[in-house]
Amino acid sequence: MRESKIASANAANKTAGWQPIKKTAVLLFSNGLIKYGFGIGSTGITSGEVCFNTSITGYQEIMSDPSYAHQIVNFTFPHIGNVGANNEDNETANPDQEIHISGIITHSYNEKPSNYRSESTLSEWMRDRKITGISGIDTRYVTKLIRDEGMMSCLIEHRHDGIFDIPKLLKILENVKKMEGLDLASEASTSSIYNLNSKAWEWDRGYRKNNHTKIKIALIDYGIKTNIIRMLNTYDCETKIFPAKTEIDSIMKYDPDGVLLSNGPGDPEATSTYSLELIRGIIDKNIPIFGICLGHQILALALGGETKKMSFGHHGANHPVQDLSNKKVQITSMNHGFTVDMDSLPSNVQETHRSLFDQSNCGFEVKDKPIFSVQFHPEASPGPQDCYYIFEKFIKTIQSVNKRKYGAKKK
Asked: What CATH topology corresponds to 185-400?
């Protein structure tokens, strides 16, 4: 009886001109798993290390974050594309506006966005930037897979005809590079020095310009997010962004009051050939230093510490972190696959923040130097604004070191 009903329904569908939706994309994992879905964005083949991101909103900011170079992001939130995309909220600060993410995996893609700031669908935005994605995937299953087996290589192919050469794709997948040992920071970095003077976004005001600069900040770009620069501009800083492989003489010529080491992609140890000498030179000059994410890890290496690869990393905008100085808990935005080994650092380096998910290090400061850093993203975008105070701490540290210049009072 059931079979006859199904046959009748199929016959009716054919009469009405209904046809099953063709699968136009395939997803392959290095553990042998193969899934079929529907392609979004650009057609073609893309590959990288798969990770999962638990953010509910902010998919455009996530996808345009240079820290996701060589990564395919599996979104745990089921609906992606609801608010479309625009040309204002990209987090890649580089003047070339290149997007570095390898691809995305979604459960349900929305082709009809609704938002007053939307300028295009997400798929159109992706096509314009040659980003390939796949939808129709059980992302909860993929998340559990990554949690249990760790971040692995994966590959997406998007073809309109839905015809895939699986043996060929498996051979390509075998040659996908592991994240360990990859210097992606120099690729995501700017190739020239530049300025950006827009402030953080405000309701009904948008991105206003910073016309009242006071403190000069040199930002070393390992794949910097735009909102880090905007936050400093919001605090009336003059910002100048330098390439990852810049020389210390170039930075000192600018005569900065402070130096910020930015976020970025890849293995922090792979940057050692060009980053450590520069940072140690800045440390010797007693200039205040603030590190974020990859900058936090590279700073740890410059201080004599070590970093290690995590099983599935921290990626999302809902990560609880405890400030050890006052025991307060903050909800933070995170995006990293490596972590600092606090036991490897010298005794004058003190831990300041710790993850409440796995107790991994999320911040430290140098007791006898104006130096501190955090593993999370205080600038958010996307994410909560609990940690904007970290930028205020950086400004106050600079004012304390430069009392004569800024008239900072002793505590």
From this structure: Rossmann fold (3.40.50)
Name the residue ranges covered by the structural domains of the chain: 22-174, 185-400
How do residues 5-49 score in pLDDT, each as one tens digit?
Answer: 445 544 443 444 445 578 999 999 999 999 999 999 999 999 999
Given the residues 70, 296, 315, 377, the one annotated as active site? 377
* Topology at the third CATH level for domain 22-174: Glucose Oxidase; domain 1 (3.50.30)
Residue 379 annotated in active site: yes
Q: Is 154 a catalytic residue?
A: no
Element (H, E) at 284: helix 272-284
DSSP 8-class letter at 164: -
Please tell me which residue in 154, 293, 362, 387 is annotated as part of the active site.
293
Q: 372 exposed, middle or buried (CB, 10 Å; 0-12, 13-18, 19+)?
A: buried
Question: CA 256 to CA 105: how far, in whole Å?
Answer: 42
pLDDT digits (tens, 9 = 90+) for 354-370: 999 999 999 999 999 99
Place of tokens 């996307």: 382
**Is-catalytic flag, 237?**
no
| pLDDT for 17 | 44
- Choose the catalytic residue: 314, 365, 379, 387: 379
